[in-house]
Amino acid sequence: MSIAIYIVVMAGVTYLIRVIPFTVFRKKIKSRFFKSFLYYVPYAVLSAMTIPAVFYSTGNIITAVIGTAVAVVLAYFDLPLIVVALSASAAALIADFLI
Fold first, then answer.
1. 3-state DSSP call for residue 48?
2. 19-73 pLDDT, tens per residue?
3. Measured between alpha carbons, how far is 26 from 99 in angstroms, rounded to an integer?
4. Exposure string (b/e) for 35-60, b if CB count within 10 Å is 16 or more?
């Protein structure tokens, strides 16, 4: 019975999250400040979800920092995403073996 309540509550929350913007903002948004604020919201949310996961993914903050540093350096030189991801993972793994 409690699982059904959880599903109903989550369905209501999901519905409200999707409906409220349509009911509140019926006219086109003209404020440059508000438009620029809304433009950066997806990037901020994605960063807020990703960055903590990056540093807690290995179980050791030092290996996570080493892997992240390798990823940042390789991404700075415009290497392909697969190369950056595999190199960062390998760096974190090697650092874990050495520590």
1. helix
2. 888 888 788 888 899 888 889 989 999 999 999 999 988 889 999 999 999 999 9
3. 57
4. eeeeeeeeeeeeeeeeeeeeeeebee
DSSP 28: P
Q: What angle do CA 70, 39, 13 make, to 5 degrees?
A: 95
**What Cα–Cα distance (Å) separates residue 80 from each residue in 32, 46, 98?**
35, 21, 27
> What's the predicted TM-score (pTM) here?
0.63
Helix (H), strand (E), coil (C) string for 60-90: CHHHHHHHHHHHHHHHHCCCCHHHHHHHHHH
